[in-house]
Structures are given as structure tokens and as C-alpha cells.
Design a protein that fits this description.
Number of helices: 14
Structural class: alpha/beta
Radius of gyration: 21 Å
Strand content: 15-25%
Distance between the termini: 17 Å
Bound molecules: zinc ion
Number of strands: 15
Largest sheet: 7 strands, mixed
């Protein structure tokens, strides 16, 4: 057994331990504790990480790796509508999902996420290109194959095509798992929603929900910028009538509201809707830096936590965020919600995300039996509250993986070719 020692161990499954240790054998955690190690553990040669906090690898519950090539190309917008239009016109210039620069950007993004301490990813993809790349990089992931079609009157063909794409890369499971995900209430027809819900009734799924004021307006009244956008894309269905309800109530009609759902964003959801997600056991995935970038506003993170809904954290794609560093996302939650306990934010970035993505058995906490996907964060002198420090914004230079040389040389750049761990 290898014993990792550090000034702090943040197990998530229990309180922070000062002068803690984690025992690892054959890639799994076998024990952990504070300074008084049980007999047998002391005998093992300790690997002392010094003034660091050991914690489980982070879980990025929502990103779109295939958009990584858009980094810096879609400027921040004052309205969601304007941002989406800019994204769509840029995407039209890159019709080949296997173009070399797209592939290279995905590979680099995975490596950068790992260098920032991310050990599990929830990825949304239209093309499934990222799925095999996540597998090849040794990055555990749940890949949501996103389905769209507002004019689709019968979802059979759309779903058959999606199923074929998934079946073509089945061999990457179970390290990378796949299921279907409807894009959003305004981009999926009622028939397609029902088909998706019926296709994989036991699978986890994800949807962008309550992201923008435009979405809420569209569901309540119809019209507005979303209808205009659908019309200009040739995707509008003149027979569609607004359901005159909120986003949560709308997707409930299609049987999507369950403990298998990751509802992403929720910026515009009311407290009552958040409580509805909570009582269904769904997970809300917040991506606050992206919300600001795309003009959707600031998420009511205080309400998220107060409502009792399970909160996970995502970065969203590099089209709407500077980097895939989940620590930066935690810092943004702290900036928006000064009263949220730091422990709850760190738990969102680890255990809650792992459980929502179906990886809770192996990741998300430091507990016997779980995989030793552990990171160490350098903690400066004078820090008393290490959980608060972890949500203050941690740079990749201060993050290392326990199975890699530590501390990393200051000069080490994020590896474009992530290694297995
Ligand atoms: Zn998204």
C-alpha cells in the first residue's frame, strides 16, 4: 500500500482531516485518516505532499468538448439570442466535425481539464467525436448524444440515426458511457421529446433548462427571439402552440423529470421550480461563468442551494468560458453566493457531479473502495479554512495528480496528451 500524507485531506464523505493520509493499493483507496494511522499503515513508506490538500478529482458535469475550437471566437454578448446567432454562424463555417483543428482542440481541452484536476467529464456532443477521444485519453466520462429537431413530427428516424452513431462506438464503454439527451425545450419537438424519453427509460439524460429569459418567454407566450431564430434556421413549426408553463413543468409532461436528469443552467427557474427538481431527485448543473458570457444573466446560486436541489457544476464549452478549470467555476459560485458553505460548493464539484453522471461508485469522495483518482492542491501559509481556500480560484500550476510527480515543475505546461491514471 502507498500512503499519501498531506497537511489536509478533504474526503468529501466526512469532515476535513488535518495532517491526514490516504492509503492506496492497486489503484483503489483502502483507508484514510488523520495523524494517528492504524497499525500497518505507519509501516508503509509514506509519500508526504506537505502543505497540500488531497481531495478527489473534480467532476465537470457539463461541457461541449466538440466546441473547443471556438475558444475566444464567440465574444460575450448582452443577450442569449445574439450569442446563439453568433455561435450558429461560426459553426456553419466548420462543417467537418473531423477537421484537424477541431480534433486538436478537443484533445488539448481534455488535457487542460485534467491538468486543472478534473477526473470525470459529462460531455454533450452532436457528433460523438469526443466520445472516442475521451476514451483514448483515459478520461472517464458520460457522453450525452444531443438530439435536436423542433419540426420533427415522428422521432423514429432521428433516434435510429442517433442509436447507430452510439452503436458504432460501443466498445469504448464502460469507461466512457453514452446516452441520449434532448438539447432544450425550444429546440426539440414534443414528438421527439416523447421518443427520447421512451428510447432509454433507465438512462441518465441531460437538458439545457431555464437558461435564458427568451426561453421562458417562448414557452409562456410563443414568439420572440426564439421563434425568429427557428424561422431563420428553417426549423420553425407553425403548428406548435406555447404550453403556457415554465420549463420544468414543460419537460415533466414528457416524463423527463427524474433522479436520472441533469438539468443544466436553471438561471431563470423560480424557487418553486427548483423545489420541483429537488423533489424529483434531479440534479441542477450550474455553469455561472458561461451564463454571464452568453448574456443569460447570473444564476441564483443562493436559491439553488437553499431549495435543496442537488447542485453539480459544469464549465460549459470553451465557446463561452475562458478555460475548463472547475476551480474557477467554484470561485464564481462563491462570488455570487457569499453565504453558501464552501463545503457544499466543493461537494458539488466532486460527489454530486460523480453521482449525477453515474460514477458515484468509483469517484467523488475519498472512501475505501473508490478509485484513487486523487489530486493535491498546494495550500499557502496562513490558510485556516481549506475548503474556503479551494473555492477561491486555484490555478493549474498549484494542482497535481497523486500518481504523477509532485510537486509539478512550475514551468510544466498543460499536457496535450493526457495519460491514464
Ligand atoms: Zn451547454
Amino acid at each position: 500500500m502507498i500512503v499519501h500524507r498531506a497537511a489536509w485531506v478533504v474526503p468529501i464523505a466526512g469532515p476535513v482531516m488535518r495532517d491526514g493520509w490516504v492509503g492506496v493499493e492497486a489503484g483503489r483507496i483502502v483507508a484514510s485518516g488523520s495523524s494517528t494511522a492504524p497499525a500497518g499503515v505507519e509501516a508503509a513508506p509514506p509519500f508526504d505532499h506537505g502543505a497540500c490538500a488531497i481531495l478527489p478529482a473534480l467532476v465537470n458535469a457539463h461541457t461541449h468538448l466538440e466546441l473547443s475550437y471556438m475558444r475566444g471566437l464567440v465574444p460575450p454578448a448582452t443577450s442569449f439570442d445574439a450569442w446563439v446567432r453568433a455561435l450558429i454562424s461560426l459553426r456553419a463555417k466548420y462543417p467537418d466535425p473531423l477537421a484537424a483543428d477541431i480534433i486538436q482542440a478537443i484533445r488539448h481541452a481534455i488535457g487542460e481539464a485534467r491538468a486543472a484536476g478534473t477526473g470525470v467529464i459529462g460531455d454533450i456532443t452532436n457528433t460523438l467525436v469526443s466520445a472516442r477521444m475521451l476514451h483514448d485519453a483515459g478520461m472517464p466520462a458520460h457522453v450525452f448524444h444531443e438530439v435536436l429537431g423542433f419540426r420533427v413530427a415522428d422521432g423514429t428516424q432521428t433516434l435510429a440515426a442517433a442509436r447507430r452513431r452510439i452503436d458504432a462506438v460501443r466498445e469504448i464503454e464502460p469507461g466512457v458511457r453514452m446516452s441520449l439527451a434532448p438539447h432544450a425545450p425550444y429546440s426539440v419537438s414534443p414528438a421527439l421529446f416523447l421518443s427520447i424519453a421512451g428510447e432509454m427509460p433507465d438512462a441518465i439524460t441531460s437538458i439545457h433548462l431555464g437558461e435564458s429569459p427568451e426561453e421562458v418567454h417562448f414557452l409562456l407566450h410563443g414568439g420572440g427571439p426564439i421563434q425568429s431564430a427557428l424561422e431563420s434556421l428553417g426549423a420553425w413549426n407553425p403548428d406548435w402552440t406555447p404550453p403556457r408553463c415554465g420549463p420544468v413543468e414543460y419537460i415533466e409532461k414528457f416524463g423527463l423529470l427524474s433522479e436520472r436528469l441533469l438539468a443544466v443552467h436553471g438561471v431563470q427557474l423560480s424557487y418553486r421550480e427548483l423545489a420541483q427538481l429537488a423533489s424529483a431527485g434531479a440534479t441542477l448543473v450550474t455553469c455561472p461563468r458561461s451564463n454571464r458570457w452568453v448574456g443569460a444573466g447570473s444564476p441564483p446560486v443562493d436559491q439553488f442551494y437553499a431549495s435543496g436541489v442537488r447542485v453539480a457544476i459544469g464549465t460549459d464549452s470553451l465557446a463561452s468560458v475562458e478555460d475548463l478549470n472547475l476551480f474557477s467555476e467554484m470561485a464564481q459560485i462563491r462570488a455570487l453566493g457569499a453565504d453558501i458553505p464552501a463545503r457544499a460548493i466543493v461537494e458539488s464539484a466532486t460527489r454530486i457531479g460523480a453521482e449525477a453522471l453515474g460514477f458515484g461508485e468509483d469517484y467523488g469522495t475519498i472512501e475505501p473502495g473508490k478509485r484513487a483518482a486523487l489530486i493535491a492542491v498546494r495550500v499557502p501559509d496562513g490558510v485556516d479554512d481549506v475548503e474556503e481556500y479551494l473555492v477561491s480560484g486555484i490555478r493549474p500550476a498549484d494542482i497535481g495528480w497523486l500518481n504523477e510527480p509532485w510537486p509539478p515543475p512550475e514551468s510544466r505546461a498543460p499536457s496535450p496528451e493526457p495519460r491514464r491514471h
